[in-house]
Amino acid sequence: MKLYDDLAEWWPLMSPPEEYADDAERIARLLRPEGAAGGRMSILELGSGGGHLASHLKRRFDMTLVDLSPRMLDLSRRLNPQCRHLCGDMRSLRLGETFDAVLVFDAISHMVEEHDLLATLRTARAHLRAGGLGVFCPDFTAECFVPGTTVGGTDGADRGMRYLEWVRPGIAGTAYRADLVYVLRHPDGEVRIEHDGMTLGAFSRTAWVRALAQAGFGQAAVERQSGRDVFLAEAV
Predict the structure, then answer these.
(1) What CA–CA distance (Å, rounded) separates 188 from 159?
(2) Which of 83, 124, 135, 195 is the most exposed place for a label (fewest CB within 10 A)?
(3) How far apart are the C-alpha atoms of 44 and 27, rounded to whole Å?
């Protein structure tokens, strides 16, 4: 996607860090229920992007952030200098160390084929201590897929952007399509329009539970949060 490469500098205006506060709070409660004791948990976030979710979670947890895009990691390093950053593919990464939890937020939606989903879950399991928790937050499962159009964007000090995202109707196998249009206002007043798009995955809940078991997790739980299915499973 252009947004993760050539247009990465616009990401903070499309999806500002402050918009992740509620998601971060919900995830923090899953990772450490209210009243739970203990020191700071170590978390590996795969597909951490620009670090906007981590900018909230780092206050409570020790975060290691991994993403495939060097430009998105550069954004995250500026926002989260306290966190460790690594470039890697969530399907094949092996760090040779374990964590208390592995989190994959909406980046898991970029896994379109079931073998890619399974590879990512195996990466998560490989980096968890026994009893550690995997948390996976796809945009959609097949059961909760809702096509539609979203608009948004914000203004910065000297530039601004607006976007329209169209999630097309229908899932073909495990894949659906989203198209995006960006309107970008540069500091000199120039306005340009860019088109972007992505093919994303929407697996059934049954496929998710099967893949988690194959990857080495115990019985999965499904939490409904803000209209999405969130999967939680312990490493066994």
Answers:
(1) 8
(2) 195
(3) 13
> What confidence tens digit (pLDDT) does each residue in 62-71 have?
999 999 999 9
Burial of 30 (0-12, 13-18, 19+ CB in 10 A): middle
Say how many C-beta atoms besides its own lie within 10 A of residue 22's C-beta: 12
How far apart (Å, rounded) are the C-alpha atoms in residues 34 and 55? Answer: 21
Q: Is CATH 2.20.25.110 the right assignment for the domain spanning 143-201?
A: yes
- All CATH 2.20.25.110 domain ranges in the chain, comma separated: 143-201
Residues 101, 128: Cα–Cα separation, whole Å: 6
Residue whose tokens read 């980096």: 127
Q: Domain 2-141+202-234: give its CATH architecture.
A: 3-Layer(aba) Sandwich (3.40)
- How many residues does this entry show for the chain? 236
Where does CATH 3.40.50.150 sit in the chain?
2-141+202-234
Pairwise CA distance, residues 78 & 82, whole Å? 9
* pTM of this structure: 0.95
Per residue in 69-112, pLDDT tens? 999 999 999 999 999 999 999 999 999 999 999 999 999 999 99
Count of CB atoms within 10 A of residue 23's CB? 20
> What do you get for the CA distance between the two ends of the chain, in Å?
36
Neighbours of 194 (CB within 10 A): 16
Which residues, 6+ apart, have CB-to-CB distance to 28 below 8 Å?
Answer: 56, 57, 60, 61
Structure letter (DSSP) for residue 155: B
